[in-house]
Amino acid sequence: MPSYAIPLSTAFFAFAIIAFLGTVPWTIYQYRKHGYFSFWRNLVIFSFIYYCLTAFFLVSLPLPKDRNNTLEFKNHIFTQLKPFNMIHNFKEVPGFQPTNIKTYPTLLKSFTFLEVAFNVALLFPLGVYLRYFLKKASKWYLALFITFSVTLFFEVSQLTALFGYYAYPYRLFDVDDLLMNTLGGMIGFFTAPILLMLIPSRDQIKQKDTLYQHNQLASYGAQLLEIFVSMMIARFIGSILSMIFYQGNHLFVFNTLSVFFFIVIFPVLTNGKTLGGKLVKIKFSMATSKDILKLTYRFIIIYFPSVISQLTIVMNSKPSENIYIVSTQLILFLASFTIWSIFWILLIRDWVKKKSEPFFNRLVPLTLKRY
Hints:
Elements: H1 5-34, H2 39-60, E1 79-80, H3 85-91, H4 104-109, H5 111-122, H6 124-134, H7 140-159, H8 161-164, E2 173-174, H9 175-196, H10 202-215, H11 220-246, H12 251-269, H13 275-280, E3 282-284, H14 291-316, H15 323-352, H16 359-362, E4 368-370
Parallel strand pairs: 1-2
Antiparallel strand pairs: 3-4
Helix pairs in contact: 1-2, 5-9, 6-7, 6-9, 7-9, 11-12, 12-14, 14-15
C-alpha cells in the first residue's frame, strides 16, 4: 500500500546508517569474543534490528508536519476500548453478509479486513525471533509477555502522541490492535520451527564458537581484518608524517616505511602482535630471529600491488608522445590492473572455498593464533 512506503523506506535508510556505523565495531567485537565472524548470528541480529525499526515506523509514520500545530486532531476520537469491535466493522463492509459464504471474498479484499490482517502480521516476525532466542516452546509465557508489552508500547506511543512530543494524538489507540498484534506474535512463536529449519540453531552456532575458542584458531576473516586494519593505521600515520615533514610530499615513501614498520618491525618488538592483531586478539607465533625475514617476505607479497600502482601513477603523470614511454605506461597500467585483480580474486576465492588462511599468510611459514 502507498501509505506504507514512507515507514518502510525510512526504516531502510535508518537501518543503513546504523549498519554502516556499527558494522566495523561489531565485527571487531565478534572476532575478539569468538575468533570468527558468524554469518548466521549476524544475519539474525541485523535483520532483527531492521525488523524493529520497520515495525516502529509502521505504527508511527507519517508524522504530522509540525509538532505544535496538531489542533486539527483536537476533537478526534483516538481511543477504541471495545474488544472485538472489528467484528462490527466487518459487518459494515459493503457487499458482505456473514450468513452468505459467497460474500466472504468481498470481506477478504476490504481495507477493514486487511487492516486486521496487517496487525496480525506486524508482530508475527517478533514471535519467530523470540522462539529463536528463547529456544523452547515451554517459554511461551515469556513470549506472550514480551509480545504484549511491545504492542502496548506501540499503542501507548500513539495515545500519548509519541510520549508528548506532539500536542495531540494523531493515531488511534485500539484495544483490537493489542489483541491482534499479540495473536500474531504468538502464531509466529509456535510456527517458528518451520522457518527456523533453514538456519542453524543458537546451540549449533555456540558449538562453532567453542571449536574456535578451544583450538585457538585464527579464522580467515580475522586474518584479513588484521592486515587491513594494520595497513589502514600505518597509512594514516604515514600520511600525517608526510604532512608534518614535507607538506604532503613523498607520501608514498612515508606510507611504505610506515607499513613496513607496523607489519614487520612492530610484531618483532611485541612478540608477534600487530595493531590489527591486537584488535581481533590474534598474533604470530614468533620462534626464531629469522622470523623477521618471513615477515618481510609477507610484506613484499602484500605491498607489491601498491608498488606497481605507484609506478603506474608516476609514469602516467608525465605526458609524452614517445612510443616507448607510451608503451611503458600502457604495460604498467595493464600490469597494475592484472595484479590487483589477481590479488582480490585469490582473497575472494579462498574465502568462498573456506581456506584457513589468506594466500599471503599461507605462503609464509608463520602461524597466526588467537591469544
